[in-house]
Amino acid sequence: MTSRYAQLLFTGPVQVHQERHGSRRNYAAMGEGPAVADRLTEAEAAFAAESTGFYLATTGSTGWPYVQHRGGPPGFLRALDERTLAFADFRGNKQYITTGNLDTDDRVSLLLMDHPARRRLKILGRARTVDVAAWPASAGPLVPDGYRAEPERVVLIDVEAYDWNCPQHIQPRFTPAELEEALGPVRERMDALERENARLKERLAEAGAARRAT
User: What SS3 state is found at 169?
Assistant: First the structure.
């Protein structure tokens, strides 16, 4: 956990509960660093680039939190630099709750999951939307070749803090592509055994025919 993450989330009421349950001493030193935004490292950038989805939390003008899933092919979420994330916001059901919430409160929280490896990354930041036409060609395509989706906007997130969370209770889950990769060698082995079985049956049939002919 970074110092900035602790500074933003370990509020007074939170610290009261930490004291009550005996964890405050362990967490107290975490917030003692400088009050500056975290910088993304290669680990966070790579994790984002491999992601095919994440959960995004915003807060509406009524004060109610709202969580929505954002998804796309690997690369739809990417680190532009050590301070900025960006993702292509594809056309959906046109409710625009997240987009409207950002008009009154730009603070966001992201939860990125890697179920096979049982890893998760939590990110705090400030988000803003920009027109698709403003996306620089130097940053790469918004939509990878072969992916049928139309981005309505680009969301830029100025990262404030992040935390790699523990793997406890994360159940391993796999996408069809991941299962296909894992099961590929097994299927090849099964195909080879079926071919070998067919050859053995053919040889037994030939041997039986030869015995009957004698």
Answer: coil
Q: How do residues 3-36 score in pLDDT, each as one tens digit?
A: 899 999 999 999 999 999 999 988 888 888 888 8
Instruction: For residues 85 and 67, give the distance between their C-alpha atoms in angstroms, rounded to a whole number.
Output: 18
pTM of the predicted model as reported, rounded to 2 decimal places: 0.79
Q: 176-197 in b/e burial notation, b at 16+ Cβ within 10 A?
A: eeeeeeeeeeeeeeeeeeeeee
Contacts of 35 (CB under 8 A, 6+ apart): 4, 7
- Residues 133, 135, 140, 145: what is their CA dihedral angle, to the nearest 10 degrees? -40
The gap from C-alpha 78 to its chain's centroid, in whole angstroms, comes to 11
**Residue ranges in the chain whose pLDDT is less than 50:** none
Contact 122, 94 (CB under 8 A): no
> CA 98, CA 101: separation in Å to the nearest integer?
5
d(CA 76, CA 70): 10
Half-sphere exposure of 180 (CA within 13 A, CB side): 3
Which two tokens mark 178? 């991941």
CA angle 184, 72, 90 (to 5 degrees): 155
Cα-based distances in Å from 160 to 8, 30, 34, 192: 9, 16, 13, 54
| CA nearest to 80, candidates 120, 135, 8, 14 | 135
